[in-house]
Batch of 3 targets.
Target 1
Amino acid sequence: MAVFMSLSTQAGCEASACTGLAQAHIMQGQAQQALAWAEQAVAWPEAPLQGHLLYAQALRMTGQAAGAVAHCERVLRHAPTSVALMTSLALAQRDAGQVAAAEQTCEQALKLVPQDLALHQNLANLRQARGALKEAEAGYRQVLRLKPGHPMALCELGHVTSKQGRIDEARACFEAAVRTDARLAPAWRALAQIEEQAGHIEQACQHLIQALQADGRDARSWFDLGRLQMQNAPEAAMAALEEGLRRSPSDKQAWLRLCQLAFARGAFQRGLAASTQWTISQPHEAQAHYFKALFCRSLGRADESLHAARQAMALAPVDALALECLYLQTAAHLDMGDLSAAQQGAQQLDELASGPVQQANVHEIQAGIDILSGQIARGMAHYEASMALLPERFAPRAAICAAALYRSDLGDDSVLGEVRRVMAPFNPFRQPAYFANERRLDKVLRVGYVSGDLRQHSCAYFLAPLLSAHDPDAVSVVAYSTCAQQDATTERLRQHVDVWRDVAHLGAQQLRQQIREDGIDILIDLSGFTDGGRLQALSRRAAPVQCAWLGYLGTSGLEAMDYRLTDEWVNPPDLDRLMTERALRLPRPYVCYEADTSAPAPSPLPLQHRGQVTFGSFNVLQKISPECVAMWAGALQRVVGSRLVLKTRALSNAGVREALCEAFAAHGITPDRLDLLNWIEGQQHHLDLYARIDVALDTYPYNGVTTSCEAMWMGVPVVSRYGSAAVSRQGLTLLRSVGLAALAVPDNDLFAQACADLVSDASALAELRGSLRERMRSSALMDRDGLAREVESAYRAMWRNWCLGGTTL
């Protein structure tokens, strides 16, 4: 091109230089630049014929086919026998929609050069375009007589015979074409279509791969390949769709397929990237915003999900998609703790829902609102309604079991009865006859941990110490993460395991199969019936030995769950009747706490400079049962002038605050003695609030675990009431482990007295505040190596029993 630029500045060379520059730009696909230079070329009286041909071509490339027709006709008056001009005119006429005229032009040119292959090919193409298949077929056969094996003629002959229903002939033509020219992408695509129609999907995919090797720029081939691979090769399908969309981002169906695949496979980050790009390329497409909302919610980004769902609703206010968007909006409000907005959304959904699936979804949304509001019984009733509508759905069954643990009005035996009733369809269980695991007592045990909390979550404070202290000569660890959300904690946990599997997208049967294929000897369930729990998969036994630990404190009610790792304070032997698993008691606290290394130092005792006792609890609202309110009120009455600070997300709702104040008022505690705080984002701000608290009050019947450890780490002692169920004995084992067993008591009166005794000596309380962190650090509660050795010993005992033919110890 540089040579032509130089020539264009020299007298006498202008026309040829401009022609050369136009040619160069056309070869690079730069139509506007080519048109500019060609226009200069044809302006010269001595312009070469090539310049006029390029000018016509550039006009066609820029969508000016009528102008190209006029120019070719004008030049033909001066060169009426130019076959090249006639060919250019025919192409321009075709592009201008003048098909009949284009055919006539080709026929006139053929009278001058009856052996011209290109003219015969163009004429046959024109006839095929207007549906004259017999005439087109004759034209292609003429080309093949003139030049046997002509690849494009074979390809087009394949098209016309295919359109006439002669599929075998068509296949033979396409195969002959690619034998002659393996780079002929249209022939490979046509072969793929034939194989697809015959049901030969794998062969069709292979042909499309050949087409893309010949011409990787063709978006249609990428889209077809992705579509065909969706069922049997979903990962490859996603890659093909992404490749095609990079070339043609306007294809709605391809975006839709990509997002559907990403969601089905749990590839939420990848799906969010795709849906975000879709909203950019097609900002008025409601489904693009809907999928963005869906992926954001799946990744725990509730505020972004809400915004995207609103955009989708604005674009599709009345169709079926609108109901899905309304559901996402409501769920986002619930996730963000905006219970008033969530309640409004639930009411709208209730009015619009039709059919059991939609109605069940509404019941589950309403159940979530009720439980976060502290209305546990009402929430359970909605889950019961969902279960009645969709008996096969596991989620409402799990939610009923989890919610029952918060009920202070249900006896412990009643809770067990509820769990047995709800889980009845999954019992009795018949163990598979065979596991391929090697029954060797001294081998390195392959231990799997299944959890929805392998991220920034309270359970990570207790799981990380064990994983980091495991002896690689004793166990080989496989982690199964059932949550799509990942963060820095995820990456830290990943460093302590041998194999990490993201399994959020797997169904129960798929997860069970994956665990069996991994050859897991002992499977540890860390989530139970909480979010991310996968007990449905474990209910049909995924490993020879299955054990519950840590994340869920109630029983599973499942015969397939063999053991529960615990201690004698959480699950004393005389209360074994309250769980279906066999208790395997560690001779130490069953957990080890890993403190936040960024936590500030404990503050001075507020009582000493305020002269007023401040109690506090940062537990979730659903743990604050009616019995818990009565217990706390007793402590406030016993300690005259004391105050209570509560902090939880649900307290952002005015109705929740009012109901809680009324509950305390019923026990003689006026609202002016309560400080009700909304959730504060950020761990540092959260920990700083302990500077306001003298003594932390545990919840009942569902004790705190992380919250209690966190309070003690900040120098704030915890007073706890224990009962008979494991959920109400967490405070007992934690306090015993740090030498504060006297602060765990069995009834409300002793609870109030323990609180009063603790604050009666401000100097002693201040001394405890200053020493509590070191007391924890030197206790069994933070002895990770001690926990790891005892847990590994327990695993070995479980394994020995299985190898010797037992089910449980």
Target 2
Amino acid sequence: MTTSGTAGWNPGTVSIVNGALRLIGAIASGETPPDNEFQDALDALNGLIKAWQVSGVHVWTQTEATVFLQPGQARYAIGVAGTDHASETYAATRSSAGAAAGAAVLPVVSAAGLTVGDTIGVALDDGAVFWSAIASVAGSSVTLTGALPSQASAGAQVVAYAAPFARPLRVIGARAVTLATGAETPLIPMSRLDYANLSGKTVPNGPPAQYFYDPQLGSGVLSLFPAPSNGLTAVTFTCQRPLQDVANAANTADVPQEWVSALRFALAVELAPEYDCPAPRFEMLKAMAAEKFAVVQKWDVEGEGTTSSAFAQPVYQIIAGALRLCGGCAPQNLPTWGQVENARYSLNAVIQGWQANGIHVWTQTEMTQALTVGQAQYTVASPRPLRVVGMRLVSASGTETPLIPMSRLDYANLSGKTVQGVPVQFFYDPQVDSGIISLYPAPADATATVHFTAQRQLLGVQTLNDDLDFPPEWLDALRLTLAWRLSAEYGTPPEIAQALKVQADEALAVVQRWDVEAQGTTTYPFGQPLYQMIAGALRLCGAVGPQDVPRLGLVENAFTALNAMVQAWQASGIHVWAEEDVTVFLQPGQIRYLLGGATTDNAAATAGTGLTWLAATAAAGASGVTLADAAGIAAGSTLGVWLDAGTVFWTSVTAVAGAVLSLGAPLPSQASGGAMAASYAAALVRPLRMPAGRRLVLAAQGAQPIEVPLVPMSRIDYANLPNKATPGTVTQFFYDPQLGSGVLNVWPAPSDARCALRFTAQRPLTTFAGLDSAPDFPDEWLAALRWNLAAELWPEYNGSARPGGNPGQYALLKQEAAAKLLTAQGWDREPQSVLFGAGMGPAGRSG
């Protein structure tokens, strides 16, 4: 018996794909699949290979690369599209003679390894490294495509490389290399926040001693500390490269021989739902695939890894694959345009809903906010951060000091929010359209800035040509999840729908275990129109077919149900984005104030109120006043003037001329110069809840107002007070959210008008006025809205008069709707207050 003497068997893609199709019974032995089915299987194979990268750092994908440094540069983009310089191999030499500024010919000690077209770097006398390309090599003289910008003396370090290094998936270790001697010094790895909290990141104090690698999309970013002081040191790192794509039938998979069998069986399991593989065979294949994968994984035992290689599977391919998986179209057919468009809206809903699952590594970014003296709050709208993970104050000299985060109530109960000093604390409020950064104390130095680590938005898919804002290892989970979401629309058999759900959950769990940084959410403007949300809900509940356009009557009925559901959801808790600070102005002796509706009492959102003073005395009967500052006041505003008699007179503003205001009614008595005046543009809408309040002591001109927390009372507490009209300083309150107008009861009765009350209130959620209305919800709630509206409508279209209704399908629909609502509610939870404790309810408060 003789052996072959060879051990290089590694079958091509055709053998793997055909073998998988035979395993599931799609083709028989000797048959070949049609071209479109082969291409579909090839796409699935690519997705499978990319997803496998998250299972660990594969031994055969580890390699070495070197990044070349510049003085004072701390961050280096590594990737084919990167502007910095990194390569797997390079040649090093020295200049044999000096070269003056403007020279394009460089004499070198040895030209070995230098090739025309290579990228070449020359260390200049000023410490920088000049990069160009090699135009020609003649003996030991190298001609550059660009002239030297300054002198390079004899003995200057010279390096060259042929091709840039692809973006690493993970950097396992790094060493600083002295190019002249080859001496290597290991670097210490850092976490993201370790690096973010370093002060003086760009101060050139090298050589580097620490590093942090951030696997962003396109190019990875290697950050070094301290920044190098010259270009004579490089950093060589051990990393995991991406698994290569399978572009066509002629390619072999980028896996060793021992992985081929596991790959074939795993591809069979991946394709089985598309071809209605019988359940017993599917379960057998799944068990065999898992066993084979476990065997080879035990051999491939190095540390965990991930991938973000440019697999570039188009959006259309993901959608078409999902439609085939759920039975929306046959394996050999192309989906219709209507199916693709409907699935694209569902894909966007999946993407936006996933943002509530946690802060994704590749979406974290650094942002900067300039400061203004005395300004405590700053609006960040473009791009609006979803969550701020950490914040530092950066002085003009570059010194960075971490700030302490606060909860909403911690900040609300601070007295003197505009007191100036060096900021030491911050609160970030992610409102619907823009975020608000609140600093305390307000900055006294405009030369400082704040730098913060934030989670950016995941981008939606507007056209089929868009790139997905996901690394390739997420594509398999995205395709399977989309297929599960579409299964309700296309009436997928329950056993296949359940199998899709299991596979989608498994794929998502695998990539989520890699994406392990702190929790996050999103409110990026997904912009799904209200009509599309309603149409999607009608398809989910079976009121219309997947390819049908819902008629106006169905849309109108669903529109009414949606508004009723939004109003009912208000009782589920105080929603973060619906909280606002409100101010109620007091009158001496008045204990009850009507808020909202047709009321004569005076209250408004604090952001829309202004406090100023009279610049001159206004006599009784005066129809106008002169203010010290009329900024923000316009005709139609409501104005309150503190009279010498001790009351506040409220009227409308009919005209504004500089600082002179014309009043809608004359003053009933005199108001001296220096008397306070308050204004607001719009009256307060009836609050749903007012869980916390403060007494605002209005200070004299030029002084800071003082805020003192109030004690809330229950209805019985207030009812049992023996003398509600007792005059004094207000210390307690009870808010009664009656119909029309809410009733605010205060105790004791205010003895003077030089105090106002400020409350953290929950405003009503705005209902939809028409199909062009924007939802009064952040985007992470849109998936919950759509699925819960479908569950709300299901009984209307699948009751006793519709025997086609499937109770099992309704149970799955209801289960998914509840899960979406719980996910959104889990995000709608504020940080625990260091002053008030954990609290209860979706907004993190006790009653």
Target 3
Amino acid sequence: MMRRRVFRLALLALAACGPASVPAPRPVETPHEATEDAPPPPWPFADTVLPAPPAQGKPTDPGPRPGLPEGLVHAAEMLFRLGIADPRGLPYHEVAITLTTQPEGPGETVATKGFVLPGPEGGPRFGVLWNGLVYPLVSVGRAADLRADVQSLRASDKHICEKLAAHLPEMPCSRTRGPRPEIHSHKLEQILPMHAAILVQLGEDALARSLWQTWIAGGGPDDTPEVSGRERDIFERLAGHFLEVLRDRGLWAHVRGDDSLALASLRGLARLAPALSARAPVLASREPTVESLAAPPGLLLADQEMRAARKAPKGLPEPLPAEPAARVAALVAALGEVREPVFGRPGSQGQVLADPILRALLAEGEAAVLPLAEALSTDERYTRSIWYEAHGIVLFTVRDVAEIALDTLAADLPLAPAPPDETRPQKAERFKQAAEKFQSIPADERWYRELADETAGPARWGRAAMRIVGPTDAPLRRSDASDFLALFVRVDGPPKPHFAGLSSRKNPSVTELLARRMKQLAAGKAHGNLRASCEMGVLLALWDPKGAARPLREIAETLRKGANDDKDADAADELRPCLSVLFVARGASGDEKAFDEYASWIREIDPATVPLRGATLSTLLAPLALRPTRPSIVASGRAMFGAKTSPWALRFRRGERDDLLDPDLLPIPGMRELVLAALEDRTAIGAIELDAYGEATWGRDGDGEFDREHEQVDPRDPGAAASNTKMPLRACDRFAGILARRIDSAAPFRMYWIEPRRDDAIAALRAFVVTKSEPPRAP
């Protein structure tokens, strides 16, 4: 599995540099003898759970260190003197610690190796790890061989460089220059400058020299100024790495609820950052680095100090008060303990809201709206939850969590429109006003009034229609065309509307209101109004299939013209998938001629104007697959995919419309023949290469390095080609690989197989294409 990426917390921006026109005075190096004679500073973690190693602060042997850069020796001496944990005199053992290896996890026991501090039998044990930090140990195992571990690290590094050279011979094998997060830096996983510094402190000069020389190899003065051997550059690199790991440990200890370690890390950071920053100018370090070293732990330390003083219980308060208002107040007070696992995770399909505190608050319903609105306005406490952003990870505050809880609770609370650049206090006020306005009105009546309000406008009409008609499990995000299509092709038929009881309302009825809003939106000039009109029509068909037939037929031509509007391509892209669903909706209401209109319309669309998004294309072409035997559909399908000169077929064969390789589209007339022909095409279009390290790489002729695809070879697979093999990539191989991924395990295919094995797999895929004849459920 691909290793999870772990991001660092961005707490403060770098301070702005001074004017470029005023050169900074060149600092003068301070004699090392002066600092060596001064008493060592206090252990920066003295008032925490982390003890000082026995050798901490003791002077090192002042003798010569032949073969080591003098700058490395002096920088290491100073850093261990200032607060990096000193491993001298400690036995080296296999140990286990607690780490956050998965962002949503509570912390896992991880095996590693470190230098074990003395401790009482049966009492808590601590150790110094390879990132220079003291850790509480879960267990202490057998003695380990430090020299063997370092040699193993060098061998692993050599293997990685050889593998890189095999793929990119022109690229030097440079090592990681930036700081590594706690999850990687605590062990000998890849060569880091801190490893060399620790070996220098241990007196393992030969090992330190080998790691240091390997680390700086391949670097230049821009990314690796340490090649010069200057103490100031080495000091700032080591100090920067150390402080980032310390900051990272404080964050993740906080997230998993290990407050004693979080507080210790952040207190240490608050003391070490200014101490190391103060030393940096003496060594003439560069200004930007000095600023980064000085960055304090920020508000998270204040939050941890408050938790230590308050000693509030962790997790869901138990027992909860019986009185509703007191119960809600207790839950809101506990929001600082919320650890919701997937806030903002890339690829997540919506927020689960699985934390027990949040679930208990949501169970209180609208009784929690006003207290949550107050928290949204003012509560800046941190929670245990994180938010993924492009630059790293940010901790959620109670205000963040309260906002998400309010958005969930307000599913049936009509809100006033948000003002431009709305602040959180303003949003909280909107929630308060809505809660007070609608507190005695049933939910179905609220939405009926919104839909009937002539002044509400498109956004409020659309939300009211979705809440009335949409199923109870409708997504809280704005639905797209594929969501609507799924409602019409469900095996058990379209779902029952959420507020079906409103079907008895008259003068006006919900059907009349939906038809009226659909026409009003279509007549509007604002961008997106036609899509909103189309979606209103789809909801009308779900609400009242028989009553929808005539209004949908009347609006069809207006929407069709909008979908072909070259003047507003973005609006047309948004409208087309919805219009396809509207044709399906008309068919569901008994208007089968809608498919004939669709067949005429779809032939007019140039595939070059259809975005390369699988869901968009499959929705756009769905009516072709739903009525594959209807004469007009047959004619259009064969014209689009059966004719060799068709733009659709040409783009597919050139590899420009891989999204057509969708099993749900195979019933389309002409599509099956197009795919079968592609699976028969033995034309060589590129190469498949297997290296000596178990990786297969392939791509078409002319593809750049980043356009090529990669796959790890299963060494147990009898069909795999031998290492260091180069084979032709055929067009059928490429199509087979894409189709196999789309149908999961129905017909597996591996690009690293020998050609006869690939041919067998392609034959199985062809059989699948031939037998995959059942279209999606037709409405």
